[in-house]
Task: structure prediction
Amino acid sequence: VQATFLLDGFVAGLWRWEETTRSARLILYPFTPLRRNEEEALRQEAESLLRFVAANAEEKEVLIQ
Result:
């Protein structure tokens, strides 16, 4: 089962988590192109998630493919 993310209550894409001892990366794969405000909202949520689950990582990155 692949991890999905919601946008306005609907499944809008897949996500993948990568972590090493020094870095953490969250990669989002939207099913359709995102509007600027949608992308910014997703990026903010993803950055909050990274701060929570990878608090000790020196480098944190969110990619939207």
In short: The chain has a mean pLDDT of 94. DSSP finds one helix and four strands in the chain. The first strand starts at residue 4 and ends at 7. The CA atoms of residues 7 and 42 lie 8 Å apart.
